[in-house]
Amino acid sequence: MPLPQIPLRSGRMLTAALLLATAAAVSAPGAVSAQTTLRIGMTAADIPRTLGQPDQGFEGNRFTGLTMYDGLVNWDLSSATKPSVLVPGLATEWKVDDADKTKWIFKLRPGVTFHDGAPFNADAVVWNVDKVLNKDAVQFDASQVGVTASRMPTLVSAKKIDDMTVELTTKEPDSFLPYNLTNLFMASPAKWQAFYDKAEGADAKAKAAAAWTAFAADASGTGPWKMTKFVPRERLELAKNDAYWDKARVPKTDRMVLLPMPEANARTAALLSGQVDWIEAPAPDALPQLKSRGFTISQNEQPHVWPWQFSRVEGSPWNDIRVRKAANLCIDREGLKDGLLGGLMVPATGTVEPGHPWRGTPTFQIKYDVKEGQKLMKEAGYGPDKKLKVKTQTSASGSGQMLPLPMNEYLQQALAECYFDVQLDVIEWNTLFTNWRRGAKDPTANGSNAINVTYAAMDPFFAMVRFLQSGMAPPVSNNWGFINNPEFDEMVKKARSTFDPAARDAALAELHAASVDDAAFLYVAHDVGPRALSPKVKGLVQPKSWFVDFSPVTVTP
Amino acid sequence: MLVYIARRIIYVIPIVISVALVCFLLVHITPGDPLVAVLPPDASQELAAQMRAAYGFDRPLPVQFGLWFWKALHGDLGTSIASGRPVFTEVMRAVNNTFILACTASVIGFVFGVFFGLVAGYFRNTWIDKLATGIAVTGVSVPHYWLGMVLVIIFSVTLNWLPAVGAGPGGWAWDWEHIRFLILPAVTMSVIPMGIVTRTVRALTGDILSQDFVEALRSKGLRERQVFRHVVKNATPTAIAVMGLQLGYLLGGSILIETVFSWPGTGFLLNSAIFQRDLPLLQGTILVLALFFVFLNLVVDVAQAAIDPRIKRS
């Protein structure tokens, strides 16, 4: 059928309109700058808090903690092969009081100044401890307590000895304190006071809140990067701190711009289009494309564990060590890594892997050995005709959970070969966390005898103590399964009261080996913190840590 | 008229209270811990209880609602748990960004919708009609977020013409540095209103062209362009009314588009507040958006009453 004819005049109108419609096609001029700028797309939906104690977990510490601030104790992030260990930060040395093991003396680094020019000294340390622990202090800020106090469970107070010496007190002898102090960042009291003096408010509390809000928008720490521009939910711009006290860590890039990009595909597109130079957690499906276009994928084993935490309450099938060991032997972790996760995991054979100072020498070797697993299950009374029913509570998504559903379904199939009948109880991520704190005896466990919540293993308390010590059962901490092993309790006590670092690590290694030998968890995977970098970015050393040192990174203009 | 307006405003009061109550209850009955943003997952239950008390979440819900509503009536929507910033400031900043995006999308949707509608209606049953109608149907059918991603792949990743995400170098200004960030999300957001306006105007144009006055104009010897101008004049008010409704929807924000483009509007804010369980921010954002629609309806009611006295009498 012939199409109707269009009048010529109307055709011209149509052409003009189409030209108008296509006039939006424009090209973006790229601004040329002599300065070098590193632009990073974060996974966070908002800029992590900038006032000294970041939120948003360790991504917050990575981007707005360790960049602008220092702790008394810092992490060594200089090696990609060695475990990340503690190094002096704003304290040059520390030791526990021989007579009273609850008192620590920290010698402070001389000559350090905050970004606003105010000197760093003992008063600043006391002020910063008080901001989260002393409810009577004017600078006390409840919003910073949760993310800080939970990571320094035994610290009670700080006292000035002299300008360059402070005494920290813990509620019980605790050799883990130096690890805990990596989470307390030193903000400038002088800068805060200036905001406080100018703040308007009905009372001191309101003025303090206003001062913290102002401080967050114009922060001052002692770190290698200084805040230059802050647009909430849009961007944070940092400039290198030429006067940084550690000359080896003065940034090699002039500026760093941090952009929140919570959507993985959007982050990847931003990198591919050249809008950013570095993205955290690229979309897994895009890795081949990124690699083929010359982008670098950086990854390394992180102190992170993807486990099943067993219930050890009365009647739990996991109370039989043969069953726990069998589960650990029936998982093909290499298959999980290469088949499901595209290489983005490290198989877990414990909380920490060989080479780590806390590894120890466990006698139970976690590996893929279905025959041995089946043998153990048969010894425990199970077989093809009598499967063991177990139920695991997990989530469909969540920070650090990697790909929880596909991974759990993989475990479900793998364990079926060893006569397990696994039922998954999938709940929402935050609900799972809430349940985690409540423990296996709580009705919220919904009959589950294992829970799948990933955890960070940066320091001894969070890596082991909170799960293995009987006193850490709910409501105190995260011993969800109510593990009650006197041997573990003794080992924790010993590690906590051993103040020589090497001896403390040896005690922790004993504890770790014992926990592996006891198959305390179903150890599955460690995350690797993948990030994609433009070919212009050089010099990144990705350590075995949640954190990264941005100072040695360079960007070709 | 004043009595009518006063009566309408009085009617709004129970609606506002209901809206506040519903949005408060909705965010509180969802599972999860409201302190998840400031309390790490590995925090003990003991510390969680302390923090809950510090933020007042340990109080009975009616007390929490009463305190929150009383403050909200005084313009204080509280402080975001996650960011520590005042909720009112956060919401207003996001509303401003969504307003910019929605208005731009509306202009694009309106201009192209009217254009395609007029062309399709004027050249009814020709291939042009089919093309324009096809574009309209595609516009209302295609998933937003998918189209957004496709546009990003074409214009950002492949052609490298426009930025993929964000809202520019901070703070809004009508300069190229900012506008280039606006183009892709605005175009993505405009396709639905464009489709709806196209279909409306197409039907309207066909209807107008079949009316006697058009024949009369042609009989008077008016040129086709002049006749067309009359058709446009007659179709425009309805098109504007339809677009006005669409603008209302767009101002509510689009979680999907704003998330795909990391556009810091109300949708992006809501998404962030939901995932962080930031109850004060969630309550504040929902309340402000709900009140906006209540206000919009009030204005429409009053405007209709002003135009049509029969409504006032009823």
TrEMBL record, chain A:
This protein's UniProt keywords: Signal
Any one GO molecular-function label of the UniProt entry: peptide transmembrane transporter activity
Top-level division of the source organism's lineage: Bacteria
Domain Solute-binding protein family: 86-449
Signal peptide: 1-34
Key word Signal present: yes
Cellular localization per UniProt: Periplasm
A Gene Ontology cellular-component term: outer membrane-bounded periplasmic space
Family of the protein in this entry: Belongs to the bacterial solute-binding protein 5 family.
Name of protein: ABC-type transport system substrate-binding protein
Organism: Aquabacter spiritensis
From TrEMBL, chain B:
Signal peptide feature range: none
Alphabetic keyword roster: Cell membrane, Membrane, Transmembrane, Transmembrane helix, Transport
InterPro entries in UniProt: BPD_transp_1_N, MetI-like, MetI-like_sf
Residue ranges of every copy of the ABC transmembrane type-1 domain listed in the record: 95-304
Keyword Transmembrane helix: yes
TM annotation in the entry: 9-29, 99-123, 135-159, 179-197, 239-261, 281-303
Origin: domain of life: Bacteria
Principal location listed in the UniProt entry: membrane
Subcellular location as annotated: Cell membrane
Membrane-topology annotation of the record: Multi-pass membrane protein
One MF term in the entry's GO annotations: dipeptide transmembrane transporter activity
Any single GO CC term annotated in Swiss-Prot or TrEMBL for this entry: plasma membrane
Family statement drawn from the similarity comment of this UniProt entry: Belongs to the binding-protein-dependent transport system permease family.
Annotated PANTHER family: DIPEPTIDE TRANSPORT SYSTEM PERMEASE PROTEIN DPPB-RELATED
Protein name: Peptide/nickel transport system permease protein
Species the sequence originates in: Aquabacter spiritensis
Classification lineage: Bacteria, Pseudomonadati, Pseudomonadota, Alphaproteobacteria, Hyphomicrobiales
